[in-house]
């Protein structure tokens, strides 16, 4: 079946955000959930008009929540990043997947005496510590090497009860073996993925392998599937709902990725708004191979402000 | 459905190798294909009676072929290993997955002017060179690090036309990004996996993440599936058949792994013999979750010699 762009747009149930839709959203939604990279900023640069749009939403009494799959930073580190970009956001408003991993262990009563092995970066270790858990691995094990020699036994801590895997620019064979041994040999050891994003904008100019790369590596060696705590899994949403006591139908998820942000919002029954200021283009949205359709789409977050008018 | 061991053995169509079967095999088979680790040796130690068994088979005029998924060595390096263990095997009799990767490129007329990026070890680079191809990466890139800084562009060679991924104890983020960029951005770039073994005996005392770990990582970041050239894919078998002009029904595959060796033999229509001198135990073979059944099973290769008698 060959369709031209106009036909594909008619097939798609998403609507280009209109002034009417923007007013409707503002009237029907109590909380706006934002992805960060590609919506709020690109790399270390704020996207045009974001600050004014957030101010307007706050002035209307809307709850703002920032939900990111990036696990390399903690909530505290994210609050600092917002501050450095001139936006005042409190730690309580930030839900990064490093925090999600720690909260997953907490709500599942992970025993304090057990340890958590981390294939990932500083953010995960900091969130684990803040939640009262003992983390091992992380950046420190990035310097370690292995000895593939006869009679050499690679020892691992038998009290590790969970392996958390996120984006790790210091990934190596030592960590892969450590995590694999814990999951294969420690009875009941959990395998938690912060997220499974294939790639992400680790630098402004390029995409790089994301947590999905490291998570897949451990799936490959253990032949096990992880519990995912970041988007699009429902764990974070359930946690958010419990914390803020807002019904999902009164929330709008704003994001630049179909398979994480928009799917996350749709899975939970939120309204969804796709912005083209990140990794997704209009042609990807309307491509016949795409089955994830947001309620609305627009170029960038601040379009809401313009559409509402003075 | 609960079955005891005896019942499960009756359900299984595999037979414990008998004297009659051994004689039958010797009469009906022209070529014996052997996996190496777990059949011929364990780590750097020859398994009991292997040397005498191979001598007997050669004396009966049988063709011997050694087929291993290990890609870290080249054929030349394997011939040296056999020699160091006191067994005379020629390079022509060895089919390792590093060689398979180079042959795959050759039979598919991979252009000589294009380059091959290697996530893997020395064996792959050596086989590529012997086949007349230009390899990049490998152990050398194990020392490289990345710069995740604004305005920093990670450059990759646009003339890379294939990425070969095998077991790599020097895996790092640099190589993951390099391979990912080639597959995502170089038009038509091939993604070749030497094999997908989850783990392997990198040391005598322990299993370690195998090529399946590194291959999965690249699947995770590229969202692409590789072409597998090692066991259990049929590429090596087609190649072997063409080279030796022996029908598969006249071959017997001997191995210690169900999902690679035995499946490889069965896929091609060879006779299959599972030995318990490697990673598979009798209980795994007879476990209800196992669906891969060899024609015969026995403890170790030299049982053939004993069963045939003096």
Explain what the structure shows.
Two copies of one chain form a homodimer. In chain A, the strands form four sheets. In chain A, strands 1-16-15-14-2-5-6 form a seven-stranded parallel sheet, with helices on both faces. A five-stranded parallel sheet of chain A has the order 8-7-9-10-13, sandwiched between helices. The first copy, chain A, has a two-stranded antiparallel sheet with strand order 3-4. Chain A has 310 residues and is of the alpha/beta class. In chain A, strand 14, helix 10 and strand 15 form a beta-alpha-beta unit. The first copy, chain A, has helices at residues 5-11, 19-28, 50-59, 75-84, 97-107, 122-130, 173-185, 211-222, 235-244, 258-268, 282-285, 303-308, and strands at 15-16, 31-34, 41-42, 45-46, 63-68, 94-96, 115-119, 134-137, 160-165, 190-193, 199-203, 206-209, 227-228, 251-255, 271-275, 296-298. Helix content of chain A is 36%, strand content 20%. Chain A is elongated and about 75 Å long. Chain A has twelve helices and 16 strands. The first copy, chain A, has two domains: 5-69 and 232-308, Rossmann fold (3-Layer(aba) Sandwich), CATH 3.40.50.1000; 110-228, HAD superfamily/HAD-like (Rossmann fold). At the A-B interface, helix 7, strand 11, strand 12 and helix 8 of A face helix 7, strand 11, strand 12 and helix 8 of B.
Annotation keywords:
homodimer, 310 residues, alpha/beta, Rossmann fold, 5-stranded parallel sheet, Phosphoglycolate phosphatase (chains A, B), acetylation (chains A, B), plastid (chains A, B)
